[in-house]
Write a structure and sequence with these properties.
Elements (H helix, E strand, L loop, with lengths): L2 E4 L3 E6 L5 E3 L2 E8 L9 H12 L4 H4 L2 E11 L4 E13 L4 E9 L4 E11 L2 E8 L4 E10 L2 E8 L2 E10 L2 E8 L6 E10 L2
Antiparallel strand pairs: 1-2, 2-4, 3-4, 5-6, 5-14, 6-7, 7-8, 8-9, 9-10, 10-11, 11-12, 12-13, 13-14
Length: 194
């Protein structure tokens, strides 16, 4: 059981009993035991340290779940089309690994983006693939607070992906860095579980 000790006997522990806080869909129970002879042991400070040590980046666990929504895609000829999207994020291994799948379709364009990423010391690294065009490459970037921001690179494609999650709402922005690509970018608004 993960814990943060304070003094010789004070301890903050995670337990499945009597959940006191619900964090990103997971019930967490917190109890603080403290011997007064050891001096002050503020639970709030210990809890903050425990969450920072055990939860990884705040942006990663916020992504977990299934999302859907609408947006706009901008094509290289300057036209814009409405687009419908679905996304799924799996957070694994102590909330430091992420697998994502974003599928979108407009009237004339569709994509199926998959990625697997690791989080460590503020940095995101991993790989991506796009099924409809048989393309693949690497991703790198950072996750901080409510923002997940990476650059996807491949032999013939480079684009930035920014995901901002606030509660059950999420914005996804994709911006191509290549002038020759068919799509300049996309802006998508998603809602969890819809």
């Amino acid at each position: 059981m993960p814990s943060v000790r304070c003094g010789r006997h004070g301890k903050l522990a995670m337990t499945s009993l009597k959940p006191l806080e619900r964090d990103h869909g997971h019930a967490i129970g917190i109890r603080c035991r403290h011997d007064e002879n050891d001096g002050p042991c503020p639970c709030s400070l210990a809890f903050s340290l425990w969450r920072r040590a055990c939860a990884g980046s705040g942006a990663i666990p916020k992504l977990a779940g299934h999302w859907s929504g609408n947006g706009t895609i901008e094509l290289s000829n300057g036209t814009q089309e409405p687009i419908r999207c679905r996304a799924a994020y799996d957070v694994l291994e102590q909330q430091n690994k992420l697998q994502l799948n974003i599928r979108c379709a407009s009237q004339s364009y569709s994509f199926d983006l998959r990625a697997s990423a690791d989080y460590a010391a503020g940095a995101i690294t991993g790989t991506w693939s796009e099924a409809t065009r048989n393309a693949a490459g690497t991703i790198s970037g950072k996750a901080d607070g409510d923002r997940f921001q990476v650059v996807a690179r491949g032999p013939a494609f480079t684009a930035s992906l920014t995901v901002v999650t606030r509660g059950n709402r999420q914005s996804v922005t994709i911006q191509s860095h290549d002038e020759q690509t068919m799509v300049k970018g996309a802006s998508i608004a998603l809602q969890r579980g819809s």
